[in-house]
Amino acid sequence: KAGVTQTPRYLIKTRGQQVTLSCSPISGHRSVSWYQQTPGQGLQFLFEYFSETQRNKGNFPGRFSGRQFSNSRSEMNVSTLELGDSALYLCASSHLSTNEKLFFGSGTQLSVL
Amino acid sequence: QQPVQSPQAVILREGEDAVINCSSSKALYSVHWYRQKHGEAPVFLMILLKGGEQMRHEKISASFNEKKQQSSLYLTASQLSYSGTYFCGTEGKGNSGYALNFGKGTSLLVTP
Fold first, then answer.
1. Which residue in B43, B95, B103 is closest to A56 by CB distance?
2. Distance from B96 to chain A by nearest Cα, in Å?
3. Which residues of B touch A38 (CB under 8 A)?
4. Which residue from A20, A105, B40, B50 has the fewest beta carbons nearer than 10 Å?
5. With the C-alpha atoms ordered A76, A73, B96, A34, is the resulting torsion angle positive or negative?
6. Distance of residue B14 Cα from the nearest chain A Cα, in angstroms
7. CA–CA separation, A109 vs A6, rounded Å?
8. CA distance linking residue B47 with residue B64, whole number of Å
9. What contacts B69, CB < 8 A, 6 or more positions away?
């Protein structure tokens, strides 16, 4: 069974640009969560989607958005990039809902110059 | 809402024990533990759902005191493979959907 796949693995952008990251969950998993990981802050929750509906959103500005498609694949978008957006963005999937283990992808390393 | 982990870092010799603590100011529904090795994705260790219930993963165990809103991860007779960063994730009561708030992590290094 294939794991969680995130593309691209690395991205370099400049301030003001926008970026779209992609996540394919494990087959059969309907919940997809996104996390931002930085050395100083650890893992911070961005949002969670279940059956194409955003159920939870973390404390991030509106420049961060996401969506989920009918096949459970998810994308997140960051507009008007800032230097502070440089981070590892991790996607995680789970089968159904809460209290299940998360399966994380390897992440997309975003560098904003 | 971010849980607080302590210590921030710990260095052990192989065979020694360690305890990592996780506490929250918010009422908790569950506590989740993950380990991340350098350059890899976080990997699930265990979920604790009820107060006082202990779980075990190999020689790693954990407890969850719901009343104190605390969890502790116990690493017994540590092995070199235990090195990595440990994160606790908490899920608050009343949450809809799945939203884990992770601590900043505890870096563990096990030396020969």
1. B95
2. 7
3. none
4. B50
5. negative
6. 26
7. 10
8. 10
9. B23, B24, B25, B26, B27, B28
